[in-house]
Amino acid sequence: MKKSILLFMILSLILSITLTACGKSEKRTIVIYTSAEENRYKAMQADLDARFPNYIIKVEYYSTGDLLAKLLAEGTDTECDIIGEMEYANLDRIIDLLADLSAYDTSIYSADMIPKEPRYLPWYRNGGCIAVNRIVLSERGLPIPESYTDLLNPIYRGLISMPNPSSSGTGYMFLKSLVNAWGEERAFNYFNALSHNILSFTSSGSGPVNALIEREAAIGFAMTAQTVSAINDGYPLRIHFFEEGSPFSLYGIGMIKGKETRREVNEVFAYIVNVWTEMDKLLFCPERIFNDREFTLPNYPVSIRYADMSNNTSGEKERLLERWANR
Fold first, then answer.
1. Is residue 20 classed as helix, strand or coil in its secondary structure?
2. Per-residue pLDDT in tens (0 to 9) along the chain, 327 residues
3. What is the pTM of this model?
4. HSE (CB half, 13 Å, CA atoms) of 56?
5. Residue pair 223/286 in contact by the 8 Å Cβ criterion
6. Is residue 244 left, alpha or beta, with left meaning phi > 0 and alpha meaning psi from -120 to 50?
7. How do beta strands 121-133 and 82-87 pair?
């Protein structure tokens, strides 16, 4: 009898361990690559974890340039299932790696947000501004700049932070906006002169606002949404748009070709498209992407006048960035 009981206990233990191991192995993993700012991708991670407790969802951050380079190198063999945020011009460069999304209705989006090919979907409009820390400027007895030309004044030397266009979509949109507004030669001459006043060219678009918060810089070529978030958190920042208007870039989401055959990837992707895209606008980035829905946030500018961002193609970006690297 004792031997039977012992045998039963051993078999029960083995069965329990086996079922636990099987349960763990069956918990499917979905990998999302993104270039979104930390507060945004962490909010998405938390929401996806709560919404899909039976999946392991990994949201991995890469700067704009690193994300493009990684996907170009990995191709469709990448562990990435979903591209959680990427600039249109870069998505166009990896268009052959992306799954067909023509089943999704794009008529709900504003016309300028609709991609040329149904391989990715609109995600958000990233608007830019000149952000200043008014306390740092006041303490140094410096005026608030009113134009890009003002930023060349030596009084701002070492006090300006700008994202590097080579690694940051935010940095590139400032470069492209001035190329369109002034012509290529004048724009590049301007940035060459501005470099003498730059504290640092940051690797990501978040860098300038972080430098303003830490009082390392007084002026930043910044993302409007991130600046508003800092203002709403109580930091003494102020938003300015110069005569040329607010530069902007369009970001989309997509799936890697072949991953659309996995039910769990489709399920998570559909949730991001149909639910989290709107939540992202409600919480962080209200600039318009839909035809019939508008969003507002405290302290977010309204009636923004945008810069000319025409001819913002992948080929044009590649050419301008090559010139930037060799300037």
1. helix
2. 444 444 434 344 444 444 444 444 468 999 999 999 899 999 999 999 999 999 999 999 998 889 999 999 999 999 999 999 999 999 999 999 999 999 999 999 999 999 999 999 999 999 999 999 999 999 999 999 999 999 999 999 999 999 999 989 999 999 999 999 999 999 999 999 999 999 989 998 899 999 999 999 999 999 999 999 999 999 999 999 999 999 999 999 999 999 999 999 999 999 999 999 999 999 999 999 999 999 999 999 999 999 999 999 989 999 999 999 998
3. 0.83
4. 7
5. no
6. alpha
7. unpaired
Residue pair 121/273 in contact (Cβ under 8 Å)? The answer is: yes
Angle at 311 between CA 309 and CA 317, to 5 degrees: 90
Q: What count of other Cβ atoms lies within 10 Å of the Cβ of residue 296? A: 10
Tokens of 6: 């012992």
Residue 72 CB partners (closer than 8 Å, separation 6+): 93, 94
Q: Which helix (H) or strand (E) holds 22?
A: helix 2-25
3 state SS of 217: coil
* Structure tokens given for 272: 């991001």
**How many CB atoms lie under 10 A from the CB of residue 43?**
18
R_g of the chain computed on alpha carbons? 23
Q: Which residues of 259-284 are buried (b: 16+ CB within 10 A; e: fewer)?
A: bbeeebbbebbeebbeebbeebbebb
Residue carrying the six token digits 């979104």: 36
Amino acid at 168: S
Residues 155-181: b if buried by 16+ CB within 10 A, e if exposed: ebeebbbbbbbbbbbbbbbbbbbbbbb
Measured CA to CA, the distance from residue 297 to residue 123 in angstroms comes to: 18
CB 28 within 8 A of CB 264: yes
The candidate with the shortest Cα–Cα distance to 232, out of 278, 157, 312, 296, is: 296
